[in-house]
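I am still getting used to backbone structure tokens and would like to learn alongside you. Would you supply a protein for us yourself, any chain you care to pick? Start from the sequence, derive the backbone structure tokens from it, and show both lines together. Go ahead whenever you are ready, and we will take it from there.
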Amino acid sequence: MLRANRRLLKRGGKLAFLTIEVAGDLGKRDRRRAAATGPPAIATRSTYPSLLRSAGLADIDRIDVTADYRVTAAAWMNARNAHAQAFADEFGADELRERNAEGERRLSAIDDGLLKRFLYVAHRR
């Protein structure tokens, strides 16, 4: 995917994207917890800077936006709770409970430093 994006860029063009990652230097238990609470494709075998370099991109900036991610995750929880009845009517009470439990686990993982969100910006040479 990164190589395909690189081919679309003109020389000097920029690629920017946000991603949620498992924090580095975690033990097995915390790594499993982070992978279970993050998005489905969170577990990568390589780092994003390494993937970007192997795709032929350079001048890689990695900007930690985890604090904003935390604000957004909390806002989703608050909105879902503010409209709990409408959500339950549409999707069911069980789905509401599951989404709220998932949201609480995600917030806890962010607060415990297990999940991070980064903005990557890389350039085509």
